[in-house]
Please model this.
Amino acid sequence: MPHAVLPWMQIAPNYHQGTIILGNGASIAVSPSFGYGSLLEHAQRAGLLANDVQQLFGFFGTSDFELILRLVWQASNVNRSLQIPDNRTHQAYLNVRECLIQAVRDVHPAYDQVSGQLPSMYQFLKGFDTVISLNYDLLVYWTMTHGLNIPDGHMFKDCFVGNGMFDDAWPRFRDLYRERTNTLVFYPHGSLALCRNIVEQEFKIHNAGEGLLEAILAEWRSERIVPLFVSEGTMQQKVSAIQNSYYLSTVYREVLTSHRFTLTLFGWGLGEHDRHLLKRMRGTGVQRVAVSVFRGDQVYCNYAYQVIQDDLGPVHVDFFDSESPGCWIHAVAPVVGF
Model:
């Protein structure tokens, strides 16, 4: 028997003020340039990888740019601090860094290419009390900054405070501004806007709107920091990368396991390499799950339903049309008067 795929607005009242997880399909809906598969695949197809960079990916058995960049950055800094002549290691770091910068430039749309969709994204996300973005791009960050100038009494908080550092007493941000409603935003796989320095301090790069991407790339080129995001890898590799970061591990240990009644999944294929995130939510009180479906795909409905029952336990599942009004980039149609 086929699963019913309903308009988002029909089921939305059951899921407002709950948790939403955004997968890669959310980014692709905004810009098809995000459908590149992986940064490493793009770099290989574009001929961006120098021989020494390819050797590093092969030796460490990973496709995670952030891991390789961090390893050669640390090795280069150790050699420099001990005054060990080693131009080859530093050159490998430069090659990896420039390859990553070019790959990000190639696939990430500019602010003005997506700014027209931010109002709809803002209205959609403000309906949830927690946003968990599995994507390391800047779309959610731009949506948050878009809302700063909207006097609707709503605030997005990612729990990074004025000095750019993460405040691990994150639950307090739910009640920080009692005259407003808050949506908390978390990145279990990191973000282009997050980074760490040579002594492993983690912080967020601040810059509103169209200047943010260039500010991030400039910081990467400064050699003061490396990015903090998990771009690729198996489930075991991703969990290992998460455990090596204070911010990511806090989100994994505390945010994912916090109590919730409803969960909305948008643009998430529920691939085997990411199911550890869903399993972390088992036993947190989830009773209903809404799953976005692209153009009524019943094969995906069947797969998603079984995965949710396996990983979360027996819960009610609703399926909704990812292109229906009020959903993500699709604005609610205005009421036409007579």
